[in-house]
Amino acid sequence: MKVSGFTSRRDVLIECKVTVKNNSKCFDGGRYRNRRIVINRYYDVLASSALQFGLKKRHSTNMCTMVMKETLSYYAANKGNVYCTLLDVPNKTVNFCKLFRCLVNRQLPPVVLRLHVFMYTNHNTGVVWNGVQSRWFGVINGVKQGGVLSPILFCVYIDDLLKSLADANGGC
User: Fold this and answer.
1) How far is 6 from 144, CA to CA, in rounded Å?
2) Is residue 136 a contact partner of residue 152, using CB atoms and an 8 Å limit?
3) CB burial of residue 156 (10 Å; 0-12, 13-18, 19+)
4) How distant is the alpha carbon of residue 12 from its chain centre?
5) Helix (H, G, I), strand (E, B) or coil at 119
6) Which residue stretches of 5-90 are H helix?
7) In Å, how far from its chain's centre is CA 96?
8) Rounded to an integer, what distance in angstroms lies between the CA atom of residue 85 and that of residue 82?
9) In this structure, are residues 155 and 52 in contact, taking their beta carbons and an 8 Å threshold?
10) Does residue 154 contact residue 47 with C-beta atoms inside 8 Å?
11) What CA–CA distance (Å, rounded) separates 119 from 48?
């Protein structure tokens, strides 16, 4: 067994990923199980609007691709112009205060919210370069890379922007 990732001692109990290699397959030693409980129990609170296709039951990002292709085909067949804006927002740009405000507004239970506030605001990390370890430093924004809840939290974070764009009625 090995502990992967580079976390501070304080985070180890909450956030370390224990990977056991068995016939080139990996499985987790408990971290993901706890996150799945949060996802399953609070699915309705964490669910994003109908404007997002990913990370939903009976949906996939293929639906987004299909909608884009159908829209382009429609305008091409009707000799119309198509203007498209694509937004690629890195996970590291997620502002903790806004994310937690979104979760409060969605009425995530306080105990679950406090746990996530603690995990995100007390997260320390470091860098190992050529075998030399840096000093520990705090992570001040972004969702955790590879975290089970991270994509869902990112969808919650970006949902208000998508709703505002839809309400602006600027497009098809």
Assistant:
1) 12
2) no
3) buried
4) 21
5) helix
6) 9-15, 31-41, 43-46, 61-77
7) 12
8) 10
9) yes
10) no
11) 22
Shortest CA distance to 47 belongs to which of 120, 128, 1, 108?
A: 108
Residues in the chain: 172
Closest residue by Cα to residue 35 from 156, 155, 150, 159:
150
Taking the alpha carbons of 83, 98, 117, 110 in that order, is the dihedral positive or negative? Answer: negative
Other beta carbons within 10 Å of 137: 11
Cβ-contact 117, 100 below 8 angstroms: yes
> Do the bridges between strand 25-28 and strand 17-22 make them parallel or antiparallel, or are there none, so unpaired?
antiparallel
Residues 64, 85: Cα–Cα separation, whole Å: 14
DSSP result, 87-104: ----GGG--HHHHHHHHH
- d(CA 98, CA 80) in angstroms, rounded, equals 39
Summarised one tens digit per residue, pLDDT across range 88-119 is 777 668 888 899 999 999 999 998 899 888 88
Per residue in 53-79, pLDDT tens? 777 777 777 777 888 889 889 988 998
Token reading at 144: 């955790």
